[in-house]
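Design review, sub-item: ligand-bound model
Attendees: FS, YL, KQ
YL presented the inputs for the FE(4)-NI(1)-S(5) CLUSTER with Oxygen complex:
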Amino acid sequence: MPKETTLKETTIATKKVRNPKEVTICESTARMLEKARRDGVEIGFDRAANMRACPIGADSACCKHCAMGPCRLNSKYPYKQVGVCGANIDTIMSRNFARMVATGSACHNDHGMTMLGVFRDVVNGNIDDYEIKDTNKLEQVARSIGIEVDGRSPKDIATDLYHELEKTYTQVEGEIPFAKRVPEKTLETWRKLDIVPRGAMREVMELMSRTHMGCDQHYENITKQCSRTALADGWGGSMVATEIGDILFGTPSAVSVEVNMGVLKEDQVNIIVHGHEPNLFDSMFASVNEPTLVEAAERAGAKGINLVGMCCSGLEMMSRYGVPHAGNFMSTEAVLVTGAVDAMAVDIQCIKQGLAKVAECYGTHLFTTNPRCHIEGAQHIEFHERDPKTCTDEVVIKAISRFKNRNTPIEIPKIVNKGIHGFSHEYINYMLGGSFRASYSPLNDNIINGRIRGVAGVVGCVNPRVKQDWVHVELVKELIKNDVLVLQTGCSQIALTKAGLTTPEAAIYAGPGLGEVCETVGMPPVLGFGACVDNSRILIAASEMVRIGGLGDSIADLPVAGAAPEWMSEKAIAIGQYFVASGFFTVFGVTFPIVEETKFHKHLFEELEHQGLGKWGFSPDPYEMAKMMIAHIDKKRKALGIDKARERVLMDMADRRAVDAA
Ligand code: BF8
Ligand code: SF4
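KQ shared the predicted structure:
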């Protein structure tokens, strides 16, 4: 237990300090950044101010794939030089891009494979702590990939489903199981381009092998394998993670949740779970409700045990159980500065190493729990799905002892925002069509008649290179104002909840058409779909829109667009590439790791669309980004011949308003 003097002994190593109001619009995070500085503690925003992004790396104009290099090209004159092996700028950039896709896809697939392993153990009776919670979902997923369901027991269906879904990862030849869910014309395009994923292990391996020195040296061919590896994420590992998560822990449906640092309670033992796999979170949920541990907390003087989530597993549990959420990626260190966090347990991905130092300064127990993710300075208690409570009970016990011996002043920003979340594909079906004729038809109809102009997925990270949450919020405001319905996942969703836009009342910020639909249905104009793996729900929603009809034959025909305005992770690049390969126009903010006016740039930003896929776009400016997305949506409406309908609807609305005013 560090003494109170620990805070004073720590000094800020940084020189440059930026005004908290310039680096975030999250009031709680800004206050904690100020407090951290007073306490002499450094967090990510200060590190970012003192670590200039490498300009050559930012353009991806360097290669260190062999020891004849590293080779650096000049992005101002990209074609003036080549690497020692002769690799040109397009080869170097596409190989670097490919390795980001490979890593991102590997992350989601590794996560999905763990989920599938838990499912197998549940089905085989090797795990008692989890069970199949949603048999409807089990049947629905099985049916969607051609498994016989009628008259069979859940165990038989689940056994077949396990064996079939395992192919997502291990299959050597053939198409991954969820390729069966892809709209026919989209799948045809993939087949023509030879980018239908086989198994994720094979795709990631091949992409890594092809980017070795002296292997694939044509940016177009490298891009093809990027698409295949990325699709093995979206329609593969991520989709399995989502579907198995629903089967084991329940399919989300609309739930009112509390978000922001005010969800911490000074008089309770506060435990945060931060990471990506819902298994750890689900067991922690069981541990904090264990009567003996609740009693122990009360004996220590606490009013209870308060379990709170952060980042993606937090989003999953928020959508399924309504567990409060303390904040997104750039708030994970800041939340420790409150001094109120007794324990933080992390699993995999997006866990900043900086947490260890901050946790030490405030006497918070930081636990790593996954064999894939240890952090120097954190305590490691390994989490085993076959015996999960041993780990999570231990975390709770340590948290209670920290509560009893708290010696750090506590300052919790008393800010709590409410939102409605848990919009799974299944719930939307129900919400729009009712329980007897659950359907997406009302969505398609409202797009066709022009009330809803189109649909946008706004997703992904926050990044200290831009003002936290600001780009997300401004972009989404612009979109809904222009009648674009917004679907969300990942850290973005927390930004919008803090801005108050995930409530039905936020319909007043929507344009007249979208606003009317929201009011009729009683839904927010911004629908939270969950964690980053739940981007697969957006793919399913898009496929359903194609299946219902009236909006074209492939995902590329739909009036839809995607954006990750504050992205930072390699997973985001993999997601971007699978959205593009699925047919979405996808705009990224912050920076794009490619030199403009090169052949590879033109390929990603223009030529992929001519092949029948989507394409990439880039702008750091939220208003420009919104313009680009809306222009794309309008282009698709025109191609579908539904552009006039929208003009008529808007005219009618104007008339009605004029009458009302009179
Ligand atoms: O997978 S949005 S910062 S937490 S990478 Fe990470 Fe980005 Fe957040 Fe979840 Ni997704
Ligand atoms: Fe340089 Fe070619 Fe080696 Fe890359 S692979 S470091 S470009 S020599």
